[in-house]
Specification:
It is a single chain. This protein is mainly alpha-helical. Helices cover about 45% and strands about 10% of the residues. The protein contains 4 helices and 2 strands. The protein has a two-stranded antiparallel ribbon with strand order 1-2. The protein is globular.
Length: about 70
């Protein structure tokens, strides 16, 4: 059975009351990088980007940011 990698960043931003622009400001990452991660449009996830996002959102468990999900059929 195949799985897909799903980003939870959009939901985390909502919980904090942040928008993508705020995350860009807090991490110093490119707005396109944040947008692609939030919208699950990225093919590769940069380790450095995940570390910056985790630090900005005060997250210690990577599964809060990304998870494997079964695809919807």
């Amino acid at each position: 059975m195949s799985v897909i990698l799903k980003s939870n960043i959009g939901e985390l931003l909502k919980q904090k009351g942040w928008d993508q622009k705020r995350l860009v400001e807090e991490t110093g990452l490119n707005p396109r990088t944040i947008s692609e991660l939030v919208n699950d449009k990225t093919i590769r996830i940069n380790k450095n980007a995940l570390e910056k996002i985790a630090d900005a959102l005060n997250i210690e468990d990577i599964s809060e940011i990304i998870q494997f999900k079964k695809p919807d059929n």
